[in-house]
Task: structure prediction
Amino acid sequence: MKKLAMIAICAALLTGCATSGNDSLRDHDERSVSSYIVEGETTKSEVMEVFGAPYDTSFTDGGREIWEYAFSDMSADAVAYIPVVNWFGTSASGTQKKLTVMFEDDTVARYSMTESDVRTGTGLFK
Result:
């Protein structure tokens, strides 16, 4: 019986949190990003050095390059741990950060850093 209880506790601890995306955004907010990125001055290589490779790149009609970074940190809500109730679905909540940087030639033309609360659900908790 003790062994079964220990397995259940370990499983609950291991399934509680999930992160995805660019880990370099974990500790950044709009204020800290503005200390690294200055429009008209910061270069692509400087952005790459601080934030790493972007998860997506695209181009505008005018030929400007856009780099996108994202990071999300989610935790299972309490309902995920209620026996029988979790058979009908589960939910998780957390935060999502997104950094978008637009370059003209090799220099940052504009950038945007956003952070928002997010929630996902399955089954009855959609």
Q: What stands out?
A: The chain has one domain: 17-125. Strands lie at 17-21, 56-59, 65-76, 91-104, 107-121. Residues 17-125 form one domain.
